Every structure is written in structure tokens, then in C-alpha cells.
Design the sequence.
């Protein structure tokens, strides 16, 4: 298992950050996911199921996960519910530090199985670096585009 913990402060109100990170269909804008889609109707809440996919070279690896421990302005946790070659559990936790600043704590545990498990020592640095860069992209996306959260219809 590969564990990554990172944090950043984003110059946006916690409500804006929560709305954006909770929008499952927009996760491809700031994560390494090549696909991200909701499998459950309605807003993001405890029990929401979604499908995610990443590309590792020409190979696409997908998994289904479930949203847990949702706090409307405090973030959420996610847990893989399928046993595929790749899965990710973790959380996105939000803490307001000022009216227009939000601390984001991002934790991901990457599980590998099968051939990926054998290759994990070789992939560890790259996968850990990719996960850490996601928070950098989130910060850049939200700070560069004040309207980014306006288009998000699904609150976390």
C-alpha cells in the first residue's frame, strides 16, 4: 500500500472549495482521473457511489468507490468497494482558516493487486508524486478561476 498525506491552503471560502471537490464529475479537472462519474443519483452524500479511472501508459485502471463521512463544508472520505488491480481510499478534509481561506488536508491510500502489486516498489515514487500534485492542481484551479465553483451544482 502507498500512503500519501498532503495539505495546502487555498485562497477561497470553504463553501466554494467544498462545492468544487464534492462534484464527482469535475474530479478529472484536478485529479489524475481520466474518468469520474457518479453511479448514484442525487447530491454527494454518505453512500454515494462513483466510478474512477486512471491511465498508466496505455492501460486504463478503474474502480468503484463509495463516499463516506460527508460534512457539507468539511469534506468527505472515500473507500474502494471493488477488488480491482488498483483502488484508493482516503479523505479530503476542509478547515476554514479565514473567511476566504481554506486548509485542505488530502490523504490517499493506494492499494495495488496482481501485477501492480509486484510493480509497486517501482511505481511508489511516481504514484505518490502524482497524488501530491493533485492538491497543487486543485489550488491552482480554484484560485485562477473564481467562477469554477459556480458551475458546480453538487455540494459536498
Sequence:
Amino acid at each position: 500500500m502507498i500512503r500519501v498525506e498532503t495539505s495546502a491552503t487555498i485562497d477561497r471560502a470553504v463553501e466554494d472549495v467544498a462545492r468544487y471537490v464534492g462534484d464527482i464529475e469535475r474530479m478529472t479537472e484536478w485529479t489524475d482521473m481520466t474518468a469520474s462519474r457518479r453511479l448514484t443519483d442525487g447530491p454527494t452524500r454518505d453512500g454515494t457511489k462513483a466510478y474512477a479511472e486512471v491511465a498508466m501508459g496505455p492501460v486504463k485502471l478503474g474502480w468503484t468507490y463509495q463516499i463516506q463521512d460527508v460534512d457539507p463544508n468539511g469534506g468527505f472520505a472515500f473507500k474502494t468497494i471493488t477488488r480491482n488491480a488498483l483502488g484508493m481510499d482516503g479523505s479530503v478534509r476542509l478547515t476554514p482558516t479565514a473567511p476566504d481561506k481554506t486548509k485542505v488536508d488530502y490523504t490517499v491510500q493506494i492499494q495495488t493487486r496482481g501485477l501492480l502489486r509486484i510493480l509497486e516498489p517501482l511505481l511508489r515514487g511516481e504514484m505518490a508524486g502524482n497524488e501530491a500534485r493533485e492538491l497543487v492542481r486543485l489550488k491552482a484551479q480554484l484560485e485562477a478561476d473564481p467562477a469554477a465553483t459556480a458551475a458546480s451544482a453538487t455540494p459536498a
The beta strands are 2-10, 35-38, 49-56, 59-71, 75-80, 86-98, 101-112.
